[in-house]
């Protein structure tokens, strides 16, 4: 088992229709407005940006995200990641009554040297850190969707 490789699945039930959720998620430069752990996003071009994220633990992660798929009809946004995290992430949005079920899949390998050294003992803590980040993202997105 590669202890530096992570697979995450997060489901968010949201009260807004998929088109409204997609309109927010496809603007990563706005993520810091509603997702506290996304500290900065710097657009490099219309498909690429540099992200800095930090959750509860006292370290920041930096990575470049490049859009690899945008399919509004299927409700899919997907990126490739490189930097402190290498891998991919995908949002898949489906109608759920009058709202949306947002599925976030992520498969990444951690490259940050300290986190690689702490991979075995730190794995449960790193996974918990990710869960906390995702929970805060959902709360922030709910507030943001209510305001727009």
Descriptive report:
The protein is an alpha+beta fold and 148 residues long. The chain has one domain (5-147): START domain (Alpha-D-Glucose-1,6-Bisphosphate, Chain A, domain 4, 2-Layer Sandwich), CATH 3.30.530.20. It is built from 4 helices and 7 strands; from the N terminus they run E-H-H-E-E-E-E-E-E-H-H. The chain has helices at 18-25, 31-34, 113-117, 119-147; strands spanning 5-14, 38-43, 48-53, 61-71, 76-83, 85-96, 99-110. A 7-stranded antiparallel β-sheet has the order 1-7-6-5-4-3-2. A hairpin with a 1-residue loop joins strand 5 and strand 6. The N and C termini lie far apart (44 Å). The mean pLDDT is 97.
Fold topology:
Blueprint: E1 5-14, H1 18-25, H2 31-34, E2 38-43, E3 48-53, E4 61-71, E5 76-83, E6 85-96, E7 99-110, H3 113-117, H4 119-147
Antiparallel strand pairs: 1-7, 2-3, 3-4, 4-5, 5-6, 6-7
Under the CATH scheme, the architecture is: 2-Layer Sandwich
| Full CATH superfamily name | START domain
Strand tally is 7
Percent range of helical residues: 25-40%
Structural class: alpha+beta
Question: What Rg, in angstroms, do the CA atoms define?
Answer: 15 Å
Count of helix runs: 4
Q: What share of residues are in beta strands?
A: 35-45%
Described by the principal axes of the CA atoms, the overall outline is: globular
Main beta sheet strand tally, sense and closure:
7 strands, antiparallel
Order of helices and strands: EHHEEEEEEHH
Sheet with most strands: strand arrangement: 1-7-6-5-4-3-2
* CATH class descriptor: Alpha Beta
Averaged pLDDT: 97
Number of domains: 1
Unreliable residue stretches: none
Task: Measure the end-to-end span.
Answer: 44 Å
CATH topology, what is it called? Alpha-D-Glucose-1,6-Bisphosphate, Chain A, domain 4
């Amino acid at each position: 088992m590669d202890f530096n490789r992570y697979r995450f699945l997060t489901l968010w039930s949201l009260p807004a229709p998929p088109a409204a959720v997609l309109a927010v998620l496809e603007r990563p430069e706005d993520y810091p407005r509603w997702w506290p752990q996304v500290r900065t996003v710097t657009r490099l071009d219309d498909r690429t940006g540099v992200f800095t994220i930090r959750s509860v633990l006292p370290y920041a992660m930096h990575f470049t995200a490049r859009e690899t798929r945008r399919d509004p009809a299927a409700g899919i946004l997907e990126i490739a990641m490189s930097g402190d995290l290498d891998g991919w992430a995908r949002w898949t949005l489906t109608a759920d009554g009058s709202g949306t079920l947002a599925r976030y899949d992520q498969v990444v390998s951690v490259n940050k040297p300290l986190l690689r050294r702490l991979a075995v003992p730190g794995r449960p803590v790193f996974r918990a850190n990710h869960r906390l980040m995702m929970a805060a993202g959902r709360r922030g997105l709910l507030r943001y969707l209510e305001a727009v």
